[in-house]
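## Example pair
The file below holds two records. Each record gives the amino-acid sequence first, followed by its structure token line.
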Amino acid sequence: FKYCFVECTGMDNILQVDSVEKSFGDQKLLSDIYLGCKTGQVVAVIGRNGSGKSTLFKIITGLEKSVHSFVSINDRPINSSSTISKFINYLPQHHFLPNQIRVKTILKMVNCNRLFNHKLIQPFLNNKPKDLSGGQLRLIEVLITIYQPKAFTILDEPFNGLSPLVIDEICLSINEMKAHKGFILSDHRYEDVLKVSDRLFYLNNRHLKEIKSKKELKGLSYLPDYLTN
């Protein structure tokens, strides 16, 4: 098997996740899920708490086992965690940076030297994660995940705990990097998700449904009436 990630050639990479089935005991959480994303796309998955969004992301990244699933890039299957990690990086909901290593050292370790000049990162270069607030740490984790040189990036709750101005900067970073990679993300901040995404899917009752308008989400009882205009 030769790696199929095409870098800097103008050729699209396509990530496909098919036939995902996941149960916990007798309760089925995900059923026959298909999701696709290609270079230049931001695909968003929304849904209520407990609908299975994080579980789906963990299955894609090999962190969670499923009854059945098929993950491929450019029609080549990627099955092992080590192979998946070469093409896909993942922002979990929990903090993950090592507490005792300075931010500037972490950036070098993960091949994100370009963030040394990022205006939101520069104030924290000499700090260690243990000395940062939750919001500051989340910001750094999100940007590191966005700018890592992987074919695809999956972001689980990237806007959580962040201010509107910081969220705007993150959306700009996603739009900058999607020229080189594909993104799949989930967040409860619907307006920000809508602003940055090219395709929107709603996960409910074990299935994914593509959404074309706010009116559809109102019909699914996801949004209150005042947000559907």
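Second record, same layout:
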Amino acid sequence: MSQAFFSRGRRLADRVAAFTHAWIDCDIYKSPHPLDPGPDGSAILQFCTTQGIPAPSLIIDSGRGIYLKWLFTAVIPGKTASKLVRLNKELVRKFSTWCSDPASVDAARILRVVGSINGKSGRPVRIVRDTGARYDFDQLADAVLPMTRAAL
């Protein structure tokens, strides 16, 4: 399922009309040491607390890894997609110990749908935790990115 809405035709980054969240894909199965987010995502939330990262709104078991999504309080116009990509890239950097995938940050990204079955593992894609957190896009970006809008 696409992570954005498109203005027309094919799913291309320059056709993003709007988006509702930031995301990262953590391929924890690739880790040389066991990574366990916990049955309720508590290890991810603890990591966020110790690293000073805003907690994700959703922690999703993708069937082989985890998706983390930060939901916004409003729909964001596609013209700000470059800022979304910067935000996703910084989240990937901050979650590198969780084997975050740097290729999964583009605005045209697709991720497995909750309720579907991951064909590689045979496991269902499911929400592990909904923290209830919702974020103002600019405030989340200011909290995560190295420089705030004001500092720029």
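Notes on the second record: The mean pLDDT is 88. The chain is about 20% helix and 25% strand.
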